[in-house]
Structure formats: C-alpha cells, structure tokens
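Changelog note: in this version the structure field was regenerated for every chain. One regenerated record is shown below for reference.
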Amino acid sequence: MTELLLYVVVFNLALIFFARYREIPNEPLYYGILGINLAVALYALSVNRPDSLESYLAIGIFAAAVFCPIFLEKLIATSVRKSWWKTGKFFLYILSFLKPVKEINSQLRQFSRLADASRGDIDIISREIESELQQVGNPVQKQFLNETLIELNVFSGHYSNALHLYESRIKAKNRIIKPTLYMALIRACVEEGNHDLLWSLYFSLKEMEASDPVIATTLISSQVMILAAYGKTSSIKKIFNPMKSDHAVFPWVTKHYWMGFACLVSGKTEKAEKYLEKVATRKSTPVLAASAKNHLDTGIPIPKEVDTVKKLSLKTMEISLLKLAAEGFNRNLFPLSTVIFIALNSLVFLFQMYKGNITDLQNLFRFGANFRDLTLGGESWRAFTSIFLHANFIHFFFNMFVAWTFGKMAEVHYGKIGLAIIIVISGVTGSIVSSLYNAYGVSIGASGAVFGILGAVGTMLIVWKNRWHPQLRKRLLNMLVFLLIIQIIFGFMVDMVDNAAHFGGFAGGIIAGILVGKYEDNRLWRWLIRIPALIMIIIIAGWSLWSVSSSFNKIRWVKKTAGHFSISVPSSWVEKSVSMETQDGSSENISIFKSIFCQKFHNLTVIDSTTSILHQQEIKQSPNLVSTSDWNGWKKSEIKENKFKGFYFYRSFGKYPIGLLFYIPPECRKWVAPHMEKIVLSVKPGN
C-alpha cells in the first residue's frame, strides 16, 4: 500500500510537469489528477481502517492537491494588496505547476501586467492586449479584454486614456462584465473631473447585487472616492479612523490619498499637503505617489453644484459608510452563517472526543444521533441534532471543507438568514430520507446539510445564471459536478457513507434555494418568508438542545402499554405490536421491544393472557433450560442456546397472567442485561 502511495506521488508530479511543458493547461487533466488521488484515497479507505496510517497518507495526498492551491491563492491575494509583486509572482508560478489550468496561466500573464502597470508602464501590455483582441472572435471575451485594458490604464494612472477607451469601446454596450471596472472608471472620473459620467456609473453600480463581497467592496471604495470628490472631509475622517493603520478595504496609503484629495476640494490646503506629501514619498506605490504630487502642484477639478437627487445620494453614502465604519467594514462581507455552522460542528466534535469514544452507540444516542425508529417514532428532533455529529476526523474535516468552500458562495447570493434556512431544511431532509431508506443502523454527520449547500449553489448558478460572469459560472459548475461525482463514487464504495442522506439533503437544498431565492428582488416578500423561517429555526434549535440536555447524563424511562399491563422501558427501546396465532386458532396482539443499539434483534417479547401460561409450560420442558428460580414474586427461567441467552419471567396478577421473554445475543448484552430486572419490576396491571 505504501509503495502504491509513492507511485501516486510520482504520477502526480509527472502529470503536472507534462501539462506544464507540453502546453496542455486544460481543466479536465487537472480534475483527472484529483480523480486519481481520490481513487487511491478511496482504495486505501476500503482496504484499511479509516484511522490507519495508509488511509491518512492517501487522504493527505488528495488534501494536499486540493488545499495547497487554495493556500497559495490566499498568499497571492495578500501579495497584491501589499504590492509585493515579485513575491506574488513567485507564488503564482508555483501555483501554475500544482494547478495546470488555463485560468492560472491567464492569471500569471495578468499578474505580470499588473506588476508593470503599478510602475506606470503599460505600452507593452497595451500592444499585447490589442494583438489578442485582433485574434478573438467571441464578443464576450473581446469585451472582457477591453475592460481589462481600461482597468490597467486606470491602475497605471492613465485616466484620460481609460475614459476614452470606455467611451469608444464599452459605453454603447450598456452592460459591464467586470464589477471592478465601475470602481476603476469612477476613479478616473474623479481624477479627470468628469462628474456627469461619474454619477451615471455610480447609479448603474447601485443596481447590482450588493450582497456579493466583490460588488460590496467595489461600492464602498466608489462611495469613498465620490465623497472625496465633493470634499466631505469630516465624514471621510470618521470613516478612515484611525488613519495610521491599514484596513482590509482601505490600505494606509489609500486613506491618506483620499483624505488629502477631499481637503484640496474643500479648500483645506495645509491639511491636504500634510496628507498628500506622505503619499508622494511612498516608493512602493509609484502611481499613487505621482498622482499625489501632481495634485499638490496643479490642484484638482472642483465639481459643480449637484441637484437634489445627487445631494440625497451623497447624504445616503455618508450615513451608510459611517454605519459600516462603526460596525466594521468586514462585517457585511463576513460569511457569518457559514462560520457559525462550522463552529457549532467543531465544538460538538471536540465535545464528542472529550466525552469518550465518539462512535459508541450509547454516546451517539445521548448526543442526539438519527436512529430510524426514534426519529420517526416521536423524537423528531434527532433529524436536526444528528447533523452536528461526526464519526471521525476525516468525516468531520471533509464536510467542513466543502461547507466552507461553497457556504461562502451561497451566502453571497442567499444572504445570512437564507443560508441558515438552507442548512436546516437540507440537513433535516437528509436525516428524514436516511431514516426512511435505512431500515437499521444510525446516521450522523453534516453531509445532508453540506449537500444541501451544493444543491442551493447549483440552483443559484442555473436559475439565476445572469447574475454571474459566464467564465466564473462555468468554472463553478465544473467544480460542483466534480465534487458531486466524487461523493457519489465515495458513497457507493464505502459502506459507512449514507447516500440516502446525501440525495435527500441535495434535494432539500434545491427546494430551499428556490424558496429563499425566489423573492430575492422583492424586499417585502423576502422578509415575509425569512422571518418566520428564522423563528422556526430558533424554536427547533432550542427544543433540540433541551431534549438532548434533559436526558444526557441519565437514562430516561418511558411508560408503555402492553395488553392488560403497563411497563416501563428505557427511551432507547422502541416498541412494535405484532399479531400471534394462539392454539385455539384465534389471534392476539403481543408487544415486542428492541434496543436501538442492537436493531436486528427483538430483545423483549411481552406475552399476555393464556399464551403466557402455555409458553411457561414449554420452557419447563425445553432441553435448553439452564435453571429456574423464584425472584420477587416472578418465576425466572434461564435458557441458553448456542451463543445467546434467554430469560423468561412469568407471573399472574389475579386473573391476568403475563410472561416477559428477554432475548440477549452476545452483541446486545451490554445494552439489554443491565435493564432487564428493572423492566420486570415496572410491570403493573392496568394502564
């Protein structure tokens, strides 16, 4: 097995280098690499224990193939924000080897262009893009390249050229593909004093879906630039406070630049010089430094008086930005529901480990696992609590990874409350379908909820496809289909995987996605749907928590009726009534109980009326009878056959005789034997 894993590592490296140097940067090959990694991981899991060294190595190879590119992408994003162009290019070059897809090669070219543009040099870049434009026939791709060229012009400080390109190549199309182009053009309008176009672009940006983090960040930055263009110094100072520190949306140098710009507009020359001179000396941002120096030397264009609508818009900007500044600009961009879901699962998983063996059936029962007979027989809250339980670290880790990857994406579209509704509906749906499909056993895990998130994301990309860039949508759909295929294959290869919960959760996610997303553009209907749903989630969560905690550290006994008698059994035992034919040809109902921890066996049969007398006589003559004794008014007989033990308790309450037959196979002894005598003593005539 270890040799096989080493072969896989070598094979992975060979494929990556082949893709790199043979110029075959296609996504199918990359997904093929991941598929091979996954196949080996599944093979390791199927022939070894899930917690064996080989299984961890196989999963580790697959996880590295998935997570290393993600980690590198985070480092690259940080490098761009900090203007560490050489460092970022190095990380991107490594990423291009580990993830040989067209998108990465395209990013590598774009990164080199940005690095050159940051120095104000875009002559070579412009010629390259113009050459590409001559070869591209797809109108969408052509517009995308034109928009990239405009952004690079703004990024390099060529504002008038950027506006000219927009007027001649994009404006007539009425639809901008890249949301960030709005911010770039608004920046160019502010710098060049084209305030009419500025407002036209801003109102178009406002029509876009503000819950998208990219659009939200673009909107915030655009609003700050517009406030600076109209000299709103007091508001900007409050928004930027403290001025000395970096911010996720506004780096230190950007804060000083726009504060100085606003001071110049409002006539506060001395303050403007103080802020802009600090920017002008920054070597790491040469374009911004050149703009600051130019404004100090030549001044800036002063906007004319605005009409009532624009005045109201300016005031709204100030109020919204001041509120965001008070709350923290990242608050609206933070995937709150996704983080809460992962945090709750993590806390429960740690608590499971703290309390002992996390796969022990009695522990799972106490934590609220989904046992078919209990969930469908009265303890319906288990359909909810079971989605926070996991069987091992690998089970937990992969569920949380998928939840994080796609939860953030779904939360952008459906909102925080919308995603919470999707998680609960799909998780509960997955548990119910699992209970209906699986006759025996126990199901746990967030897989139903995770598949619900995938279903909601698929709905989002198909039903509301116009809200996504075609290339991004295609990439996300490919990733989604790949993950679904992986999970389906994994489910059929490994017995412990609950495919019923997966399919149920996926269907629930589609339904919930349509429900919470249908009225996304209608504020009234959106909240009429979401507020009652949120109240229901709070009720379900509170009820489930109370139900688990009320019986967590003690055995809860429930009273049942069996014929002419009442009997108490642990709540983890379920009842089933069956009809039995008597010697005289008539039939009578008998009650059968079984512990959910040994679902394949009937552990207790309650025999009422004359049948119990006949059964007592049969046992006395049985060759398997080991012993008989008197016990607290009962006749107790022990029977032993092969590996199982049986105990028959017989007694007559006046004219009503009763017999209790306990059947205890070896695998059920720890669940049945300790409760046997207490059950017998609980028997009473009547209801």
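Spot check on this record: The radius of gyration is 34 Å. The mean pLDDT is 79.
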